[in-house]
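Example 3.2
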Amino acid sequence: MAEIKAGTASEAEGLHEECGVFGVWAPGRDVARITYFALRALQHRGQESAGIAVGDGRTVLVRKDLGLVTQVFSDADLSAMPGKVACGHCRYGTAGAKGWESAQPHLSTIDDVIVALAHNGTLVNFDALRRELIEMGIPFRSNTDSEVAAKLIGHFTRRAGRLRTGIAHAMRMLEGGYAMVLVRENALYAFRDPHGIRPLVLGRLGDDGWVVASETCALDISGATFVREIEPGEIVRVSDDGIRSERGCKPGCRADCIFEHVYFSRPDSVKDGESFYLMRHNMGRRLAQETPVEADLVISVPDSGTPAAEGFAQELGIPFGTGLIKNRYVARTFIQPTQELRQMGVRLKLNALPDVVRGKRLVMVDDSIVRGTTSRQIVRMLKAAGATEVHVRSASPMVTWPCFYGIDTGSQEQLIAARMSLEEIRAHIEADSVGFLSIEGLLNCVPGGADGTRGYCKACFTGEYPVEIPRSFWEERFLPGFEPRNLSAASETSQMPIEQAEKVLSQE
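Structure, written as tokens:
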């Protein structure tokens, strides 16, 4: 989900996927607790807020708040939310509003029907849609694109008289990357953008239950069996009538977010029958082939860099060891620290093991190098602990372009590879050498990447965006001399005024 107002650059090193979503239809089961545990499995996708909405056949109840899933929900909260259908959300927020209204699921009404929407992604045309809806007399309580989607769905549903039709018409007007789960009192809906940028999978729960989730790890914890991905442009509906699928909008060129494979998804989640752990291990092996180095020990930046580091070490026959210890009990805070305390953040999360690294030439493997701040602090930490050399390797290509589809790189200026050459990056992070995986190497490690049978969004590496980015959305977010390349134009329907689009869609 996106905010209308841009904020200050993030101090964090890596890219952050904004949200995880989950939905379950399981009459007779404790859907609130199933959702709770699924959100815990998806907690890595967002730590700012969490929420659960439950439909009990008569109405929809929602509980949401700022904080981790374990902080937001008590046993009493879950016991007070019986029902047959539920959806859940964990959020990593971009800069901007951080209040309760920005937490999801977003609750809305369509006449006398209450719906709750959980959204992962970003709508690049939401500001224009929001202005038009306001001009039509539709009120808003937040600045999120999730509320824009909910209100647009509500508007079309009132006109069409059927929620599925309202969702389909809204999908024809939404531009960007999104995976959404919506519940009403007696039904579950799941739908995905026409390019499949943001992930969404379908699972079977027992004989009569169904779940949808951002990743397969949420299916595992809920006891569900993976069935398939929700297809780009597809709407899946589950109710007492069973499960049904229909096309919400025409699918476009496939563009799965490739950073799901590099970093976002949990290593134990699966895509196309292959674990993300194995993909990342192979990325490390390919990285070693492309950027070999003489060293005594390979270490990782835990935990996200570990599979690639293991692969790197195996490929070159260099021992793999633990040179950095991660504090796994550091929770996100909303307290704004001083600059001095902010610089202490890395030491709070990571600490070097002098007995392991002292006197050694190290290769430090991370999943990516985005802003460079953390990499520099870790290199300094390792050398202070006695390492004689620190060679830094990134298991992803250089991130040189901002993402507008659900990742918190709001400005190109934040990206070190957009501002510096390879040698300048090495000097900046104070490493003895630095190396990045090539785009070709990355594609060889993901399903269908080498032969082109699976399309991926690689915009953060190439500047080639699968969904057209309106100038009003990206203006002043690129460095001089950089111009985005749109691979597909916005749909004709999305460019129409809402009332005009409504007439066109009703005739189809």
